[in-house]
Amino acid sequence: MDNCVVRQAIKDLRTDSIVGYELLIQTDKDSLYNPGTDSVAANALISFLSENSERIFKEKKTFMSFTPTLLFRNTPKIFDKEKIVIQIDDSIVVHSLAEIIISKYRDEGYRFAIDDFQFTPKYFSMLEYVDYIRVDISKRMDPTQMRSLSNVVEMAHGFQKEFIATGVNSEEVYEFAKELDVDYVEGNYIATTTMTKTSKMDFMQGNLYQLIIEITKDEPNIDILEDIVRRDASLTYALLKMANSAYFAVHQETTSIRQAMVRVGISQLKQWIYLLSFESNEDNTSEELLKASFMRANFASVLVRKLKKFDINSTDAYLLGMFSTLEYMIDAPMEEILADIPIVEAVKAALISHEGKAGRLFELILSYERAEWGEIKVIAEELGIKTSDLAQIYMECVEEVNDIWENVVGIRENA
User: Fold this and answer.
1) Of residues 85 and 259, which shows the higher confidence score?
2) Which of 271-285, 342-356, 398-412 has the highest mean pLDDT?
């Protein structure tokens, strides 16, 4: 299965929270969305999604498109109807049996979104079945199209439908979406807007609670402590910075979490964790940011293990992904932030200017997040990574992040 699969976040404009994800699948002549006859590639992709359904649909709502043929084959029923939103487009709307098949799914409890709504009788006939109206607003910025789009948003709200503005890939389009008073936004720019710069580090409360629980034991387990710290970019940064401070009179730089813990010692580590617990903000708004850094770290680490004779090892690659969001946590340029951290030069160059092979790896991860299929193929071939491996690796990393976060949130809520 050579197709790439990635999730793109859908954000609530009013609460700034992530409410779901669209599952984006690489489109080509053999893709899932080929309106022609079902191909071997399409069937392979369906098999892949079925096998990975627990990873894909474990978290929030997932929006996914299907061809008429796949709808008639009951393909959406592979997935949990409580988690999936079936997206329908023009190929389904104009189909003679569209209302029959959609009403059948609707009666069974499935929810629908309609893509690129048009003011035609066929589209209006679909309104009673859909919960969401999705429109790509990126190419509708001239005055006439803007007025038309405003009418669509008003109509959607009049029919008690929620409006999702897609194609939000720039600040200009994002501001336009807010002017339109849409409900949700989706696009490459959203990942940036969820990464809001703050004046101090934000620590995930669940991680801090877990650290406190472990550090207060008679014999704290350093393996457990390391696992907790390594999934939080802000904790990792703070620990490495402290371990390399003048207070510990270091003669050799500390470059790993384990090494930093050993150098600091349990007694000082305990004081540091208690201090963080008092300083941390209970109203943490950086959860999506920390999840993004953790996802990138895992993705980068696994990809490097697939490569031979690469510039950095899997541990360095993990720090590359983890530290890629630091400039959104600390109001300072990346170069200034990294000056205090003794990570390998290849990682620093990759984060600051995307230089070297590590920089290309970083570009691959960013391109994958943005579903830039052409760029993904070019960089993957350049680095010697099989594109057929990317989707499975990505989904396994998604599952790992989700599992960790369920545990973290559970600790926080039960504390």
Assistant:
1) 85
2) 342-356
Tens digits of per-residue pLDDT, 31-88? 444 544 445 545 665 666 666 666 666 668 889 888 787 888 888 888 888 889 999 8
- The span from the CA of 244 to the CA of 254, in Å, is 6
**Domains of the chain with bracketed CATH:** 5-193 (3.20.20.450), 195-415 (1.10.3210.10)
End-to-end CA distance of the chain, in Å? 43
Nearest to 177, CA basis, from 379, 121, 185, 80:
185
Dihedral-angle region of residue 375 (phi above 0 means left; psi in -120 to 50 means alpha; beta otherwise): alpha
pLDDT band (50, 70, 90) for residue 284: very low
CB 352 within 8 A of CB 335: yes
247 pLDDT higher than 70? no
Other CB atoms within 10 A of residue 66 CB = 21
Could you tell me the two tokens for 178? 């807010």
High-pLDDT (> 70) share of the chain, %: 78
The residue to which tokens 């429109």 are assigned = 135
Of 279, 277, 280, 267, nearest to 220 by C-alpha is 267
Residue 260 pLDDT > 90: no
Please say whether the beta carbons of 368 and 376 come within 8 A: yes
What's the token pair of residue 400? 């790992």
User: Side-chain half-sphere of 176: how many Cα atoms within 13 Å?
Assistant: 26
CB 255 within 8 A of CB 342: yes
Q: How far is CA 256 from CA 159, 284, 340, in A?
A: 56, 26, 14
